[in-house]
Amino acid sequence: MNHAPDVWWPAVLLAAALLSDALMSLRPPAFIRDCLTGVGFPRDWWWVLIVIKLAAVAGLLVGLSTPGLAVAASAGAVLYFLVAAASHVRARFLTSAFWVNCLGMLALSVLALIVSASHVLTLSIE
Predict the structure, then answer these.
(1) Terminus of the chain with fewer CB atoms < 10 Å: N or C?
(2) How far is CA 29 from the centre of its chain?
(3) What are the TM regions of this chain, as residue ranges (predicted)?
């Protein structure tokens, strides 16, 4: 019997945040343009970030019914934001975009990973 709660909201919250970020990135507002330019990310490759974020959204949402996929999608989001944080530090672009947006999304991704991984571990113990 599973006594652990099925906590779905971190994955849904992360998916919503990534979806809104991806949609804004279609026509990036100044703070997104400044961020990507500030870390030296080539403009010709900005579209790749949208694809990565949308893939993570799909993985997180499908992962609500397939827990292993939620772990993989959350882990991918953690890696994405670790690379983003490293890019900010490397470029010395440590504005509020780094402290609030990048590290905030990293924290949310870590939370979603911990919750989804613990859910999978709980299922495997039963």
Answers:
(1) N
(2) 19
(3) 6-24, 45-62, 68-86, 98-121
Q: Say what the pTM is.
A: 0.92
Residue listed under structure tokens 């870590």 = 110
Query: Rounded to the nearest 10 degrees, what angle do helices 67-90 and 46-62 cross at?
Result: 150
Domain range spanning residue 102? Answer: 9-125
- CB of 14 closer than 8 Å to CB of 60: yes
Rg of the chain, C-alpha, whole Å: 16
Q: Is residue 112 part of a domain?
A: yes
Confirm if 80 and 113 have CB atoms less than 8 A apart.
Answer: no
Contacts 24+ apart (CB under 8 A), 13-16: 13/108, 13/112, 14/56, 14/60, 14/74, 14/77, 14/108, 14/109, 14/111, 14/112, 15/56, 15/57, 15/60, 15/61
Read off the pLDDT of residues 59-95 as tens digits, 9 standing for 90 and up.
Answer: 999 999 998 999 999 999 999 999 999 999 999 999 9
79 within domain boundaries: yes
Domains in the chain, number: 1
Helices and strands (H and E) in the chain: how many: 6, 0
Q: Answer whether residue 84 is part of any domain.
A: yes
Of the chain, the end-to-end C-alpha distance in Å amounts to: 7
